[in-house]
Amino acid sequence: MIQSSEIPRLECDHGLRRQAIVASLLREVFQGRLRAGQHLGTQALAEHFGVSHTPIREALVSLAATGVIDLLPNRGAIVRRVKPKDEQEICQVRRALECEAVRRACGRIESAELKELAAEFKRLRSIKSRDRSRYIEEARRLDSRLHDLIAGSCGNAFLANEIGRLKTLFRALRDVSWEHDEAHNDLQRLAEESHEHLAIIGALLSADRRQAARLMSQHIRSGAKYWGRVLAENATRRARETP
Q1: CATH of residue 101
Q2: 100 and 18 both lie in a single domain
Q3: 55 and 175 share a domain?
Q4: Does residue 110 share a domain with residue 8?
């Protein structure tokens, strides 16, 4: 299981600590380290993460809402099997939400902010050749920044809140995929995503709603194919490691 040192010591921010626990457990599921049918006990998790039972229970409720675990009477939390169909459905929901968000965000974001973000994506290329770990860290930061900017600028609070509720799930899939790339010294998909992000920014700058939605749809579809392959590889590897 993920090291508890990766959970931020945010005693004063209960919500952020809960989110960090959720993200950590999601990565463990998608990496295949937490297996289907495995029981997640609140006591063991609380001890592992060094927190009280309250954020653990809240994290498990959040995980149940994503469909990654089941909360069963008298049995507690049980890890569900994540099937290719589940990953496809997650990406279908993401595409519906984020395509609408980017369509609505056209004309609502300052050009200067978009141009600054585009310049940062272009600077990624120089980092890639020098420091791969930093390249992935920066790519993750910029990916989150762009998608958060779009959601926050869509002008629909309910839509933005729903994207915010599910983004931990989306980003856990992203992070597991990119960690896989780093381990295999293959950053091709990250480079492709950078180009896709720049194209989306271009559509936002021109306030072309149809083009922005089309590019976002392509971006999420491409990511879905990649995520599915990585999840399948992780599942196969873990199955081989099982005695």
Answers
A1: 1.20.120.530
A2: no
A3: no
A4: no
The single residue listed with the structure tokens 């209960």 is: 14
Same domain, 237 and 190: yes
Most confident stretch, 20-29, 48-57, 76-85, 97-106: 97-106
Q: Report the pLDDT value the prediction gives residue 11, as an integer from 0 to 100.
A: 47
**Which of 71-80, 124-133, 175-184 is the least confident region?**
124-133
What is the pLDDT averaged over residues 194-217?
Answer: 97
Residue at which a domain ends, from 36, 55, 79? 79
Whether pLDDT at 3 is above 50: no
Domain span including residue 18: 4-79
| One domain for residues 47 and 75 | yes
The mean-pLDDT minimum among 17-26, 127-136, 154-163, 187-196 falls in: 127-136
Q: Using alpha carbons, select from 135, 110, 114, 113 the residue that is nearest to residue 123.
A: 135
